[in-house]
């Protein structure tokens, strides 16, 4: 028996390319005669383009063409309305692209875009979300296909008659994904064949969408996403850059690169929609919940319904006999929201876990113990048994490692120091995928699957899975990922990538092993291969409630002079099935917690009511955590042996790190200061304003 | 300059020839004579004219640090420098950090590049070349006695500043990493100091 490599801290296979600068990202493929595109964003929040004067732009040196809704190639109608770019004169929100300049150089394209004169017939706009917005309605489904509203028992009456009550509103502002690599695409046509390099979390989906838009057979479109500079949900589906690059390349007959300027991104790549929460918890004096009501109000755009499913975690977390969750969404003249790391869970668990802390304070109970006494037997909403749930173990292990027992708040000069805890959860998602595995005459094995490596290390972990399934040393396995002409696969999103791709790879390798077992003599020159398709298997309904769980502990120092909050310690313990690569998994957990730290303390965007755009549209104004903000982050995990998941026994790990971090930090700020803040982020101005010091 | 290359700073020839100046840059030890559009940044020169795509464009506004390279040994945001102003400068990009292997038969990563690999100090890799160039610049600044915001004000001036984790964090704060590899990056930088 070959010793197992699954779980080992194997180094990422593309690491050397990344540290030496030879890894190529989407805008870095430079076919001969390549030219550049630069978009022109709308400067009104709602209205109609009445004229586009391109004369001055066309006089700029190097400008080849200006695409507008009048002359751009006609696309088939997309399912995703955000991709119907330059098809009509409507402006659904500020920042919507109304023209595209194509020029010989970047400088020419930028100057050309600045010279385009667009006239509008503006209309009154409304971009301001309130909890009582008259346009808000309960949709059929929230993001992820969850029912928008659920109710069991009589939660209002149970709440009213409960011994201890918490009734609190929380606010999470719009947030931006801001991967370090801007959305970028390089497109080139060869007759009716389209080749694009694009920054995407899943190029199979991009291929399907482009084939539809340009009315091409799917095998006439090849989409490559070899290295992707982060996505965090914003590259989960094709965005306007890839459509515009393909249009511009078709129109000019030249290969075209479009890399979105950073300041254009918030309006066109999706954002985490703001969520306004009302959470009501009713409990017995011993802490047991009798009623849990989580109501969420959020916004979407006029062209696409996207409802951040922030009340969904409350259906799974705690044993409350009376439970109500509801989402309301108000269509406004805002950019279309979309996925950002742990959509739903990240803001929803901020609210729920803050409310649990408030309840613990109201009860005079330890917040770790409060969560433990509310541990459910089965999933509260569905009644299904959990395939595995080790939240209590995460809380206890974290408390021990964090020295939670000695957590009394203290003062050090102007600093107030406190600690907080919050639980984390993320559902197990898995999608059908296909893969092939081949045995080569030279003794190596080749695994092919259109997985995407957005920084998770998928090449590496898939090779580990394959090596174990084949029973061969890791060095003999090669992996090919990141091209749509490989066997089709699901996207790197919903923390589902490794489970989905790994399942298909495992299946293909198992079949190959069986073929090799019956094969006699030397391998044919082309080797032997086997294919797998997990449709019907990976997406089969499960009788189990399947989720990863975790616990966050935070220590903060609040400066009573400046109002600055600094995280001094963050510790997370996670239970997410088997961890398949200890090295890269740790990086993902730490990365998620770091983004959660940003959500807690620095990240926040504002819809400007007058102009209808995001005020914080670049990295100077939208503060993602920097080195100096981030303390050493401690991550541990509890290995779970769960046979109800997939052949590897793994749960997703890409998102759970961000879930709960902000609540743990907010709860620590309360512990330190005695002040309960209910709106993120906890910036110095806000902390000073609300402070009792 | 026998091994120098003369490159048209802008390809395609359809651009006007006004506002262009002959400029010489020495990049990773190799001289390049370029005729540069005055609007062209150093970042776009190394990427688009010289094909050195290791320097990354994250924001194009000096806000993220992904484009950090060394100019005459000092770290700079190459997206903020107009290349035409750098005539005669020595530029080092991440591609210029690797050395010949001990047997002369291939590239040997710089010790800091190796430390990034050893510590898994990156995920998507897009900020990584900037982080590495910035750290090399920061180490040189500390060695030259440049204080940072967190340096003890009582430290004697002009002497090398020892870099603890807080110093490293402070000095690298111009380089954003959205994947959240910061603690590992600090580990990697500590490795090359030790």
From TrEMBL, chain A:
Keywords: Molybdenum, Oxidoreductase. SUPFAM superfamilies: CO dehydrogenase molybdoprotein N-domain-like (SSF54665), Molybdenum cofactor-binding domain (SSF56003). The keyword Cell membrane does not apply. Residues 20-124 form the Aldehyde oxidase/xanthine dehydrogenase a/b hammerhead domain. Transmembrane segments: none annotated. Coiled coil: none annotated. Pfam families: Ald_Xan_dh_C, MoCoBD_1, MoCoBD_2. The keyword Transmembrane helix does not apply. This is Xanthine dehydrogenase family protein molybdopterin-binding subunit. It comes from Streptomyces spinosisporus.
TrEMBL record, chain B:
InterPro entries: 2Fe-2S-bd, 2Fe-2S-bd_dom_sf, 2Fe-2S_ferredoxin-like_sf, 2Fe-2S_ferredoxin-type, 2Fe2S_fd_BS, Aldehyde_Oxdr_Iron-Sulfur, Beta-grasp_dom_sf. This is 2Fe-2S iron-sulfur cluster-binding protein. Keywords: Iron, Metal-binding, Oxidoreductase. Residues 21-97 form the 2Fe-2S ferredoxin-type domain. The keyword NADP does not apply. Transmembrane segments: none annotated. CDD domains: fer2. Residues 1-32 are annotated as: Disordered. It comes from the Bacteria. It comes from Streptomyces spinosisporus.
